[in-house]
Amino acid sequence: MQLISNFPWYYTLLCLVAGFVFSAMLYVRDKQNAERSRVLLYGLAALRFASVSIIALLLLDIFIKRLVNEIEKPVIIIAQDNSSSIIAGKDSADIKTNYTKALNSLISAVKDKYDVRSYQFDSDGKQSESFDFKGKETDISKLFSDLENNYANKNIGAIVLATDGIYNKGTNPLYSITKFNAPIYTIALGDTLPLKDVWIQNINHNQVAYLGNSFPVEVLVNAIDLKDKQVSVSISHNGKVLKSENITINSNSYNTTLNYLLDAEQSGIQKYTLSLSTPEEDKNKQNNSQSFVIDVIDNREKVLILANAPHPDIAAIEQSISSAQTYEVEAAIINEYNKPLKPYSMVIIHQANIIPQRISNELTANNQSVFYIGGSYTNAGNSKSLFTNKTNDAEGVYQKEFSLFTLSDELKNYIKNFPAVSCPFRSGAVQNGTNILIAQKIGIVETEDPLMLFTENNGIKTGIFSGDGLWRWRMRDFQDHSNHNLFNELISKTVQYLSVKADKSFFRVFSKKIINENEAIDFTAEVYNQSYELVTEPDVTLILKDSKNKTYNYTFSKKQTMYALAAGQFPAGEYSYEAKVKYGDKLYTKQGMIIVKEIVSERINTVANHQLLYQISQQSGGKLFYKNQLENLEKEILSSESIKSITYSHKQLTDLVNLKWLFFITLVLLSTEWFLRKYNGKV
Fold this sequence. Notes:
With about 675 residues, the protein is α/β, with parallel strands linked by helices. It has five domains: about 1-70 and about 655-680, no CATH class; about 75-190 and about 605-640, Rossmann fold; about 195-295, Sandwich (Immunoglobulin-like), CATH 2.60.40.10; about 300-500, Class I glutamine amidotransferase (GATase) domain (Rossmann fold); about 505-595, Macroglobulin (MG2) domain (Immunoglobulin-like). Helix content is about 25%, strand content about 35%. The chain has a nine-stranded mixed sheet, with helices on one face. Helix 5 (about 310-320) crosses helix 9 and helix 8 (about 470-480) crosses helix 9 (about 485-500). The longest helix is centred in the N-terminal third of the chain and has 21 residues, at about 40-60. The protein is extended.
């Protein structure tokens, strides 16, 4: 132990001198004390000397420096798989009773010697000593990642992993165990013997389809030990069988892929059910049926391309827009087009130096967004004076300040590699509020002249690509990458920005339409006044109703500029909601539908993977135990010489004034002095 002070050493001596002078003046120099007992006077003087000296020393900001040893007990982490596959076998009753008791006994026994932390995990993990085995997915790698984050730099003595080795989410846990410098003991649960079973392994389908179109469905069917048996496969919708066929299992380890093409005949969220009619020998009927949902949109956004003449740009643009499958594209010669423009979300005008007055007037009347490509646009509003008729070849340079929509980093970096296109010279200043996505680069000089820009005037969006030869960009993209992904991204992001119409409603409610049953249903809402300013004064309520007409009533929480509601998790099924808000004298309502999808991952594969658990134990220096060997596991942990406490030594500085015992000593000294003075008539 060492005393440290910010003052020179002689200040300490001055504190002692101050205590001596103070006590001497009070008791020795005072002539009234002549007739008092010298023992009493010297005793009182000593008490005053000690108390004053201590108080003076405390004013010097003295620290005590000492070496402190701290012992950290080893942490034993016991992680129990809480997914439903654990109790899917014949020993489910034994696991719920005998095994659970044995595991709790193990935890209690190890707690006496070590710091034990118990976890349950499925798709996520949390600290808990109770288990209900209702988890819908298993992610062992996520468990290891969480443990690494929570116990970094901690003295982990061992990890006990109790599971069947089946994981249907995340990566192979073998890749995660190198993060720990501790043995992993595994408790093998479940049955490794495969049952006679036929099941739906997976259903691949689109998330979105368009009314009147067809969409593909791919079904993967597996079977074990059911050779020569017949299985009937059917897809139904609203109680009606849409597709049906029989398949014959031709091997003991069988798998096949079935492809169907279904028609989207109703708009909205549609639920389809795929079922297997299986033989009696099938021991696991739970995985013979799966449902999937598709959001059927009643119409696609329409895009019209009006061109001055046939041009390779037209095909390039049309193919890129159509690749997104969310747009319906039509192309026509501008001087021959005589249909209404109202049905189209946006219009692309290509190389039209003179736009017919009828089309120009209709675009203005409809407040439609326009994307101009090439041409001088003598009737294109404010864009007509931006360029001259003189041209030059220019490459493109991405402008970092652009913020109307985001492009991928790959596209941002690749724009400079697109070939040069023929561009007109700029004849006037760029207007305020113009957003330039791509500027012109002539030779090695990067100019401020725009190659691709966007403007917005009174809510009407306009895009301009001033060059001629956009098709070359599509070809260069394919030449360098064997696909058109980057060019398609540029065109689709442009079309998406220009075609999106602003929502002018005063009440808006947002939520996912389709979620999994292990996800929470969350809502956000916005309320606007007549000036379209966000307000949060009124209360927003919501009624959620399930398919059995059971209702749940909620009130949104008010945030700074919005409303939020966390409704929580719900069982799989269909739920409708109606949100209401009264602002002023008007009542606004919003309605919608949410589908909570059932997760069937734990029912698909029920064969335990003890080989994986053995590898985890071997690679980490642990051992594998079965559920009836927990007593052996207890002995292994308690007798392990590698599980040791760690002693940490570190220097500690303590301010002298923070020592409570010093305060009490000073208090005792002053109290004793006062008592003696009082008792002997000095006070």
